[in-house]
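Standup notes
- HV: blocked on the assembly model, inputs below
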Amino acid sequence: MKNKQIWETRPLEFWDKAKELRARWQESSSDAKRVLGQGSTYDIDWAECFPAMNIVEDNPGGSMIQAKDSPYARKCRLASEIRGWGREICGYTNNLWGSMYLGYEQDGLPFPPRKFVVFMPAECDQHTKRGQQCRDFAPVPGWMSDCTIYLGEDDPVRDELFREHKVYCNFKQINDLERIFGQKFDDEKLSKMMDYSEEVIEYSRDIIMLMGRTIPSPLSVKDLYSVYTIGHLTKVDPEDTVNFWKMVRDEVQWRADNQIAAVGNERFRWVEAHPPSWHFLKYYRYMEKYGAVCLGSQYTAQNCGLLEYKPDGGIDRRVSMKYPKDTPIATREDALRMMLGPDPREPRAWKSDEYIRQDSIVEFADIMRADGALLPLWRGGVGCTLTRKEQAMRLRKAGLSVIYYEGSQPGDRTDLDEQRFLDQLDTWMESFGYEMLD
Amino acid sequence: MSAEATITRGADALGAAFDFKSLVDKRHDYARAWKAKTGGKVLGWFEPYFPEEIAYAAGMLPVRILARHEVDDISDKWIYSSCYPVRDMVNQLLKGRYDYVDGLVNVEGCQWMYNAFEVMMNNRESLFYHYLFLPDYTNAATSKDVAKNEFAVLADRFKGWTGKSITDADLDAAIEVYNHNRLLLRRINELRRADRPVISGSEMMNLVLADQVMDKAEMNVILEDFIKELGLRKPGPDKIRLMIVGSETWDARLEELVEAQGANVVADELDNGTSYYWNNVLPQEDRLMALALRYLGRPHSALKDNNYRRRPQHIFELAEDFNVDGVLLEKQIYCHSHGSDMYAVWKMLRERYIPYHYFERGSLLPEDETAARLEAFLSMLKPGLNHLAGWHKKFGED
């Protein structure tokens, strides 16, 4: 069954702006005047409130190393492995810290040493240990927090203690950073950051909704992946971030209104789970030859929080519990409390779902009007793999066609058999009677 | 739980030979018999930070879910990757080997272990389940309050489940039984410091594993008898002294292989070895806070050894105190906790010139390969380089 192009396609206009912001982030990351620290840019939203501090995560650094330069990535992982890091440990981590052990980056420049570490609070154990290589490598100060989780109904007493624990951890981090590095934290900016963050979430929600609810989809996840870290893992000025995401939303809206497709011959829609193999994104383009468009995953929808059916039958993002906007903020702790929100089990919007509400992937696939699911099985990423097989069972039960592919980890190409992967995709598409477009 | 509630005493449970391995092998029969006798609930637990005292105070028998080596034709349907002990657990639990268990508790820790827990939640809905959060950031000023409250929530859930309130007197009794148990284990462990220990590494490991599946009051009686017997034993032969560090091991096969090579394991830093019984609860008016401080202050597992690094130093002190000649670093394949923590241990051992051998393993030890590796490692530990006086004569060297 061959399929000709039916829908109009157009290049994305926000592309140039995305590249500009990305380059700006890259430039600021290597700005020697700013104190470079290691931390989770998702969990410490206040990082931007230090004027001369630059906090980066080992991602996207780790994934970029693999995506851009496989021989160098292999060298990095080996440098980690011979120092005692397990070969099945997250590729992001071993790529970036292997680079630290080697002493140079993939462009040959010296590896920029971190001056401090903030461990990443996460459900994923490998995230929890992230930063440890860096911390053990040089005697730099480090701080921690916790990813507080429990199962079952909300418990106000537990919530209160968890919340105050997290406020304490963040408060200590900020105060200690001020003291040690002699920088003044901008408390005013912290309040503004929260507003910016809300705006970006709303735009992201619109984009994911448009991708999922419009046929043909105006944006594929391959395109979204090219920009979706902007303002998150790749932090730029908050105002620029908001403007950028508004620009993306407006363009995607226009494309949806005018039936401009991401894939001109769209006839098959699929969802995924967690990140793809960053060095082998060509499988998205390969699938496009079958008229198949990828709509992303709960992972890609994380910027807006998870979409869900509402009691009235409508669809919207799952809204995080928030304190009222007029809640008085008299102290830094108050501001942090506002930032962290009243629900200490956040971010329940995406990953914790694998713990708490595993059927949410089925709901997501339904909202995205997916015909199938392509699920990675990552050997080296515990957080990337947990409950994956159970999710597949649920998706199949809901009537979706599901296939797996195996690999080491999104940032580690070692175990991914690329040809076999493409063969699997051929077989999958052929099972629907689809042939490649000439 | 009172001592009257126990089923057997001392040597009756084991026979005269103190065959702890057999007790581990027959642990299901033991738990079923305990249940039939007492009518109490049996609670399975997964993670090393589970405060057993609270379950014990509620009249339950807390048993650790131990991995075994059984053909696994089930777990692959439910989980991908994952270390083999977790797969073993899922295999056993789904096959009903633990059919006497009334509930399962998981403590914030290893994510694979959580995987086994949630597979069970999705498959055996009739059981009691509880997920207990214990901070990874163990030494924050607020961590102890969080842990204490989590323990209070656990006690409350037990009350809702069993109908029994846990009183201060119950907690005091449980803490006393457990403290005494840990004290006895430490006393036995101290005997391993001797140049010629009266207890072998395999015997000690089987003993500690048995301890984790038995009623502690009963086990205490056995341990007291066993200590008396140990006092009558003649010192063992001079042997190379090894220490085991790494992922939980679940049986004593590695120790047995070491012994077959003419060496002995005299120390370990394993979550189901010395770390299980290393520190006691220091009694205070606020019982739950006392428990919180004990569990946050126990030797860190690899996963929780983040901000406040304690493992390398603790391992070094053990190696020094127990006069070890070399260290075996074993890691379960897919054990991300130890896979991301070994570095610090390697570094410390290298810096202190302590010989070590690192290897990966599944649940089943690849015996021939491991034996060959051990042989090579042991032959490397030449006499005279290390501490042991006397055993160099065995090799004909001065």
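- HV (later): unblocked. Residues 32-183 of chain A form a domain with the Rossmann fold fold (CATH 3.40.50.11890). Chain A touches chain B through 55 residues (CB under 8 Å).
- Next: hand off to the docking folks.
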